[in-house]
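Help needed: design a sequence for this.
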């Protein structure tokens, strides 16, 4: 039962590439494990699911109680990809880091180190990470972007002199890079030949990887059975396509496990929300890239107008929130007519980053408890009129004022809800 985390000293070291290669090689070896991602990431879990052949799950040490994290992690094999640097967390105190998550789960850490511009000095970096936090076990490293055989020999000598295990290495190659978009990596479903690419990086890592040693890494099996979120209705209709792609797997699983029926419809294909739906969820995604198509999706728009008129609860997050508004201006300055269910105008013409964890206090009866959430978008709000949905604070408890809107039983905000507290 292999349980470990793949982390790095900083972003950009190649965690995702190494993690996907590891997951594919473990899948081939028929080593069972739950793939997981630290933090509020929608993109990487899609790649994990492709590489591992099983759905990934988000584990968030800032937003989720420890018993919920342990419940979601399960008691079997587990491979967690960290976020950012190992000790990078939220706010001034750095809470909720990948290190905090590894401590909660009691699993060892493998450090992915970008070796491209270092040699013997790598030992100083790795020993610093190994010895910094006595709560953690840094089991060893996987070296990324190694140059020549001589370069590898220097790295190996320096690390072994400090008793640091090397589980494998990946050489430097432009063919290993993932494409990016303004919000980060593109979605797994948007990459042609994804399976070929994962097999390519797995094949490159395999000759050096000590899979037997990795298989022996383990931690305390999780036995928690925390109550997970209750579904908002028995029949939940969820928009699902490239414009509405950001759903947390743990949320959908919790709704299913509680007996709710989930049905999915594709607004970009002009599919209407099911008439029988008792609750409609418009997740985040990239509506700004498909605004023209959404504006002309007559059946989709009519079905949402009908549900709003009869009082079906409708909730939109981030991209879904923008689509609920009157209009969306794309990066070229063109305005597109949206659903018109909330008095909201948004724009991508002059982008501004909004990023960070959010503590939300409901200001209406749409939600009945405080919520932990995350915000990450470049849209600007040009106009927002009407009653707010939440009072918001950041990770440092700084008051951010009100956010979101609600009209009748239709509501939304830019925040992605992770868990209730």
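Sure. Designed sequence:
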């Amino acid at each position: 039962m292999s349980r470990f985390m793949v982390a790095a000293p900083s972003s950009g070291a190649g965690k995702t590439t190494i993690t996907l290669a590891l997951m594919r090689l473990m899948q081939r070896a028929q080593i069972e494990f739950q793939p997981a991602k630290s933090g509020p990431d929608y993109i990487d879990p899609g790649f994990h699911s492709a590489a591992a052949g099983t759905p990934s799950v988000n584990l968030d040490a800032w937003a989720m109680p420890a018993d919920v994290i342990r419940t979601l992690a399960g008691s079997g094999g587990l491979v967690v990809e960290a976020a950012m640097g190992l000790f990078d967390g939220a706010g001034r105190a750095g809470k909720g880091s990948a290190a905090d998550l590894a401590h909660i789960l009691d699993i060892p850490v493998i450090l992915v180190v970008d070796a491209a511009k270092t040699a013997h000095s790598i030992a100083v970096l790795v020993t610093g990470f190994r010895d910094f936090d006595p709560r953690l076990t840094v089991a060893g490293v996987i070296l990324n972007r190694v140059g020549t055989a001589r370069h590898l020999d220097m790295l190996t000598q320096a690390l072994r002199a400090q008793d640091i295990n090397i589980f494998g290495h990946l050489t430097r190659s432009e063919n290993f890079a993932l494409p990016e978009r303004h919000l980060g990596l593109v979605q797994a479903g948007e990459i042609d030949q994804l399976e070929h690419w994962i097999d390519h990086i797995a094949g490159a890592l395999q000759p050096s990887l000590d899979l037997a040693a990795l298989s022996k890494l383990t931690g305390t099996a999780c036995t928690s059975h925390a109550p997970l979120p209750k579904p908002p209705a028995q029949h939940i209709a969820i928009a699902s396509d490239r414009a509405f792609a950001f759903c947390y797997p743990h949320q959908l699983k919790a709704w299913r496990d509680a007996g709710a029926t989930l049905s999915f419809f594709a607004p970009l294909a002009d599919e209407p929300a099911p008439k029988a739906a008792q609750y409609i969820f418009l997740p985040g995604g990239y509506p700004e890239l498909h605004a023209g198509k959404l504006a002309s999706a007559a059946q989709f728009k009519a079905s949402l107008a009908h549900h709003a008129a009869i009082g079906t609860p409708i909730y939109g997050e981030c991209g879904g929130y923008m689509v609920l508004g009157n209009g969306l201006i794309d990066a070229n300055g063109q305005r597109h007519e949206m659903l018109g269910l909330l008095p909201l105008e948004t724009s991508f013409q002059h982008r501004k980053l909004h990023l960070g964890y959010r503590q939300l206090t409901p200001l209406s009866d749409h939600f009945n408890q405080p919520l932990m959430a995350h915000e990450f978008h470049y849209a600007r709000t040009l106009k927002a009129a009407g009653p707010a949905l939440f009072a918001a604070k950041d990770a440092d408890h700084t008051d951010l004022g009100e956010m979101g809107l609600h009209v009748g039983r239709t509501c939304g905000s830019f925040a992605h809800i992770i868990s209730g507290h």
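The chain has a mean pLDDT of 94.
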